[in-house]
Amino acid sequence: MAKEYAEQLFLQEKPTLALLAIWSFQKTYASVITKEINSTFAHTTKILSKMEEHELVKFTMEGRVKYVELTDLGFKVVEALKNLIIALEGELPEGLDQAKNGTSDGPVSIENDVSMNNDQDQGLYEKIKRLNDTIVFIHNELVTSGADTETVIRRLGPFKRDLKKIENVMQEYHDIDDVTIEYFIETKDLLESLVNQ
């Protein structure tokens, strides 16, 4: 299948919403994206296939479950989409702005004002920060929309698995700085408190 121009993909509502939904969940299933963008499963899988063609998303299998997540290029496109929204609207919608800046009126995200002393710590810290920012963004979005407890658990619960993966990686490393460990613990506690409200 010949590649279509990427502009044609992202000048449509559903693909843009799908990409932002993948960004907000970090790692999810096609069926969740289908529900989030109010589309059919067939249309969603077609959109995701085009995104994969453009190397914006990647699929991974864990057991019998097929996950979709953004690639580095996908994260860059999300940033560009947010900049486009700012250019058109003058500002980001509430929640998107907070995730970008790492601040919120609800749960507080830790500022990245500490310089890391090695690449291993920096990589872990950045993963934790991205996860923390996403959790805060989704929580604020849910609070703003008046979501019920079941929706909060459904949207935030999968991040427990991501935190467990990071924890497993941290256990393999021998010398992780205290800032990264503390940030991980605070992010884990934040998620627990939001899911159990």
Characterise this structure.
The protein is 65% helix and 7% strand. The chain has 197 residues and is mostly helical. Strands 1-3-2 form a three-stranded antiparallel β-sheet. The termini are far apart.
List the helices and strands and how they pair.
Blueprint: H1 6-10, H2 13-25, E1 27-28, H3 30-36, H4 41-53, E2 57-62, E3 65-70, H5 72-89, H6 96-101, H7 119-145, H8 149-156, H9 159-172, H10 178-195
Antiparallel strand pairs: 1-3, 2-3
What are its keywords?
globular, 197 residues, mainly alpha
Question: Count of DSSP helices?
Answer: 10
Average of the residue pLDDT scores: 76
Strand portion? 5-15%
- The residue fraction in helices comes out at 55-70%
State the separation between the terminal residues, measured CA to CA.
Answer: 48 Å
Q: Summary?
A:
With 197 residues, the protein is mostly helical. It is 65% helix and 7% strand.
